Amino acid sequence: MAIIATGFFDGVHLGHRKVIDTLVSSAASRAEEAIVITFAKHPRAVLQQDARQLRLLSSPREKDALLKSSGVDRVEMLEFSRSFAQMSARQYLQEIIINRYAGTMLVLGYDNRLGSDRLVPEQIVPIAKELGLQVQVVEPYLLGDVAVSSTKIREALCAGDAKLAAQMLNRPYSLSGVVVGGKQLGRKLGFPTANMNLYDPLKIYPKRGAYISRVLFEDRSFYGMTNVGDIIETHIFDFSEDIYGLDIEVQFLERLRDEKRFDSIDALKEQLTIDKENCRRIIG
Q: What torsion, rounded to 10 degrees, do the Cα atoms 110, 114, 120, 126 define?
C-alpha cells in the first residue's frame, strides 16, 4: 500500500517540498510507502507545445537526487509518451496510481492537473472517491503574497533576480557541466575563467550579465564571478589549478550588473577589477 504524489516537480522548490512533506508525514502516520511519481521529459517537449521555448530548472538527474533526498521511500520516473498523454485522469488514477502502485491516497498540489482532460484537484476528488482513493490537496507555499511555483522561479531568473529564485528554491540556482577550453582572453587579462559545456542544454540560463557565484567540484567550494552570455564563464577567486575536463557546478548567488560591450581591453580589465572588488565586498 502506498501514498503517492505525482507531477513534474521541476526544480523541487518550496511548493513541491510542502507537497512532499505532506506525503511523507501521511505515509508515516499510516505505515505506508511514500512514493513520488514523476517524468523525465516535460509533457510540452513530448507534445511539442512551445517546445522550442521550454527551459527547465532541473535536469532529470538533479530532480531525481532532490526528490530522493526529501525523505520519500521511492521515486518512480515514468516515460511520458504521446500514447501515455492520451490517458484520462480517471484512467491515470485507476491504471497507474491504484493498479500499478497500490495507491490508497493521492497527495496533490493546489495547481496539479491530471490526464488528457487536464483536471484540477476539485475535479479529481470526486472521481478518486468513486475509485476508493483518498485525496489530500496541499495549499500553496507563500513567500509574502506570492505562491511559489516553477513559473515564478523561471520569471525571477529571466529578470536576473538570483536571490529571489534561491529563496523559492530553498537553494541557489545552479548549472552543471564540464570545463572546456576558451579563447584565453581572461587569462591574458589576469582573470582566467572556467568555461562550461552544460550537461543539460534545456536548463534555463539566468538573465545575461555578471553574477557572484559559488563553484563546486571535487567536494570543494570556491567563490567566483560568473558571466552569463553566449557561454557561461567563471573566474574562480584565489584559484590557479588546471581543471579542464572536470565536472563543475556553478551556483548563482547575486547579480552584479548587466552584460556590457567594451571599447578596449583596458576598459574590460578595469570593469573586471571593479566586479571582483564588489564581489568580495558583498561576500564579506
A: -110
Copy the grid coordinates of residue 221: 567550494
C-alpha cell at 200: 543539460
Q: What is the DSSP string of 198-238?
A: ES-TTBPPPPSEEEEEEEEETTEEEEEEEEESSSEEEEETT
| Beta bridge partners of residue 254, listed in sequence order | 212
Question: Cell numbers at residue 128, please?
Answer: 478518486
* Nine cell digits for residue 49: 507545445
pLDDT in tens, 219-237: 999 999 999 999 999 999 9
Q: What pLDDT is stored for residue 190 in this prediction?
A: 73
Integer-rounded Cα Rg, in Å, for the chain is 22
Phi/psi at 273 (nearest 5 deg)? -65, -45
Beta bridge partners of 77: 38
The CA-atom distances, in angstroms, between 66 and each of 11, 57, 77, 171 are 8, 12, 13, 11
Distance CA 151, CA 107 (A): 21
Cα–Cα distance, 19 to 32 (Å, whole number)? 16
